[in-house]
Amino acid sequence: MPTTFREGDTLVSPVVVAQTHSKGAPVQDPEVARSSGLKAPVVPNVFHFARITELMLEHFGAHWRTHGEIDVRYISPLHAGDTLQARARVLKVAPDPEGDRVHLDVRCENQDGAVLAQGAASCVLPSARGAASGTGAG
Predict the structure, then answer these.
(1) What is the 3-state secondary structure (H, E, C) of the chain?
(2) CA distance to 7, 23, 73, 76, per residue, from 83 (Å)
């Protein structure tokens, strides 16, 4: 886990191929999806959120679970067989009573670079300032 983040830093997840195994919803059934005019079954939106969360955990570790915040909007569907990659860009690092809060623009993109989900995330990294006051996540 990096101990410092700078404005403009980019975090990128590995590319994954989206698949859906559930036939609980009609749009997840290949035949229904095609007959509805979709190119393939739609992957549940929770898949986008999971990829962004994994990226945050990779870079912030356990601090993400206790000091992370996220607000994501779904823009376009992800279809089975598409690829998905989570990306984050550091917008700023600002002092926080518990350390330094890293503010990020987060998004998921498919193989064509289309943005499928986008939002904001932030996480506090403990610092000597937070630890000295007794409020650090230490």
Answers:
(1) CCCCCCCCCEEECCCEECCCCCCCCHHHCHHHHHHCCCCCCEECCHHHHHHHHHHHHHHHCHHHHHHEEEEEEECCCEECCCEEEEEEEEEEEEEECCEEEEEEEEEEECCCCCEEEEEEEEEEEECHHHHHHCCCCC
(2) 28, 20, 19, 13
Quick one: tokens of 127? 């610092």
Q: pLDDT, tens digit, for every residue of 109-136? A: 999 999 999 999 999 987 654 444 444 4
The class level of CATH for 10-133 reads alpha beta
Q: Which tens digits make up the pLDDT trace of 68-113?
A: 999 999 999 888 888 999 999 999 999 999 899 999 999 999 999 9
Domain extents in the chain? 10-133
Give the whole-angstrom CA distance, residue 73 versus residue 58: 21
- Residue 136: predicted pLDDT: 41
